[in-house]
Automatic annotation (TrEMBL):
Top-level lineage group: Bacteria
Protein name per Swiss-Prot or TrEMBL: ATP synthase protein I
UniProt organism field: Alteriqipengyuania lutimaris
Any one GO molecular function term: ATP binding
Ranges that cross the membrane: 53-71, 77-98
GO biological process: proton transmembrane transport
Role played: A possible function for this protein is to guide the assembly of the membrane sector of the ATPase enzyme complex.
Family: Belongs to the bacterial AtpI family.
Start and end residues of each stretch annotated as Disordered: 26-46
UniProt keyword Membrane, yes or no: yes
Keywords: ATP-binding, Hydrogen ion transport, Ion transport, Membrane, Nucleotide-binding, Transmembrane, Transmembrane helix, Transport
One Gene Ontology cellular component annotation held by this UniProt entry: proton-transporting ATP synthase complex
């Protein structure tokens, strides 16, 4: 090791490097704010849409089977009310899903 004083002192920072680092930091913050909020909003909307599709499918199947089973119990037509209720529930669920998908699609340029 050397006893030279200049070897032990830290190298002074260049003002241009500090200015460049500050500009880069500001640009990163602006980009994160701009793109972060949009991507999060899109992810939240996609998550809600997926949950709604799942709820429509499950609600259609369960609701149709309960109503069909109730009709079977009252009318004494054991498998037919349940089957008709299931198919009606599936039909209603798919109608709701198609309706939801139709409202979220962007308008076409054809006219």
């Amino acid at each position: 090791m050397s006893d030279d004083k200049s070897a032990r002192e830290p190298i002074p920072e260049d003002a241009r490097i500090d200015a460049l680092e500050a500009r880069l930091k500001a640009a990163r913050e602006r980009e994160e704010k701009r793109s972060g909020s949009e991507s999060k909003r899109k992810a939240d909307a996609d998550y809600r849409s997926g949950n709604r599709v799942l709820a429509d499918l499950l609600g259609g199947l369960i609701g149709g089977s309960v109503i069909g089973f109730g009709v079977d119990t009252l009318a004494g037509t054991w498998p037919w009310g349940l089957l008709v209720g299931l198919f009606a529930g599936i039909g209603v669920a798919f109608r709701n899903i198609f309706r939801m998908a139709g409202t979220q699609s962007p308008p076409s340029d054809e006219g």
